Amino acid sequence: MVLKPGLEGVPVTNSGICEINGTEGRLSYRGYPISELAQKSSFLETAFLLIWGELPTENELEKFEKDVQMHRRVSFRIRDMLKCFPESGHPMDALQASAASLGLFYSRRAIDDPKYIYDAVVRLIAKIPTMVAAFEQIRKGDDPIQPQDDLPYSSNFLYMLTEREPNPLAARVFDRCLILHAEHSLNASTFSARVTASTLTDPYAVVASAVGTLAGPLHGGANEDVIAMLEEIGRPDEVSSFLNDAIAKKRKIMGFGHREYRVKDPRATILQAFAEELFSEFGKDEMYEVAKALEEEAISKLGPKGIFPNVDFYSGLVYRKLGIPRDLFTPVFAISRVAGWLAHWREQLGANRIFRPSQIYEGAKMRNWKPLESR
Ligand code: ACO
Fold first, then answer.
1. Which of 10, 87, 318, 349 is buried most, with the most CB atoms less than 10 Å from its CB?
2. Which residues does the entry assign to the active site, renumbered to this chain (predicted)?
3. pLDDT digits 0-9 by tens, 206-240
4. Per CATH, which fold does 15-356 belong to?
5. How far is 336 from 84, CA to CA, in rounded Å?
6. Structural domain boundaries in the chain
């Protein structure tokens, strides 16, 4: 048996959802280039594409949008549960618990029932933003803001977060960010979703398990750490000394490096353009100058090792400009990635075999139990 730490390069499933070309920096969902989807599609249309395999017709999209809109509200019991959580707790923990709690409300019907599958998809996509925004209001000491029916998906989330209807450019940029983060093949959280799905448990457990995995700083949590790092650097002229010190101490540059890419992540390039669009409309951000200086210098030092900016390098700067608190960056990632997780849930169920890898045992040989007095 050959050990492959981190399963690097080990295929564990066939998939038709997302294709990454890590040497040329290309990414597509169901065959459609990410740049085209980010330009022309909406998040809900992209979610439909990922989950059901084809772009929706006009009628299908209208029905999907309406169904999602109708299921945005969450039970008062979920709001009450969120009120019991400590305000100092991380919103990803609140999201993981509330996503899992949805399983308590919806019966565990046969998971091969198409209506159960459709309803679960709609509920998860509809309710996750509401739960994220509700926790934000509750921890500030306010009541959750109810979804506003006449607002589209992304605008409604920003409204529930800020109690203000967002500027159209801000809403459009946010919707595009959701498209960019919606799917990325077998990353850690999606793998986690597939492992959980392979036990035939319910989709709420599948998503809760993926949320827990996304939370870590080596995965979705990196977008928060990028901002902390840029704040630590402070000014563009501090970049060199920060970088030299980080490299000497083998400290990782957050938002850099990716298992799949040996060039700049194509999503980082698109996000950078969104950041610039926002700054030209709403004013410059000092932090962006630090990020650009860091990118330039880090590429010259780490590029030869195949380490380039990933999607998280610029996403935090965009979210910051949209007024999203830093510890909500990863929950926002989850709002989007739930589409990919659900696509993989369906695909896993279509050709399921429970995941049960093996290990190379290195522990003690068989030995006799010792009584307490002789240990
Ligand atoms: N900064 C500096 N060096 C790095 C970085 C980085 N961000 N990433 C990798 N390296 C170096 C490692 O130190 C290691 O060097 P060595 O061979 O001299 O020891 C080499 O590159 C390989 O690194 P690994 O961590 O083994 O690479 P792996 O493919 O396992 O990890 C990962 C990929 C986790 C994304 C890594 O690049 C990292 O930790 N990046 C920072 C965190 C981050 O931005 N995560 C977000 C990823 S995107 C996402 O999840 C949405």
1. 318
2. 258, 312
3. 999 999 999 999 999 888 999 999 999 999 999 99
4. Citrate Synthase; domain 1 (1.10.580)
5. 26
6. 15-356
pLDDT band at 110 (very low <50, low <70, confident <90, very high): confident
What pairs with residue 33 in β-bridges?
Answer: 28
Q: 3-state secondary structure string, 38-97?
A: HHHCCHHHHHHHHHHCCCCCHHHHHHHHHHHHHCCCCCHHHHHHHHHCCCCCCHHHHHHH
The DSSP element (H or E) to which 321 belongs, if any, is helix 312-321
Of 90, 181, 184, 258, the catalytic one is: 258
Does residue 213 contact residue 186 with C-beta atoms inside 8 Å? no
Per-residue pLDDT tens over the stretch 33-71? 999 999 999 999 999 999 999 999 999 999 999 999 999
Candidates 175, 225, 265, 312; catalytic one: 312
CA of 253 to the centre of ligand 1 (A): 8
Kindly give the residue spans of alpha helices, DSSP state H, lying in 182-285: 188-197, 203-214, 222-233, 239-248, 266-282
252 membership: H or E segment, kind and range = none
Handedness of CA 13, 18, 19, 20 (dihedral sign): negative
Residue pair 245/233 in contact (Cβ under 8 Å)? The answer is no
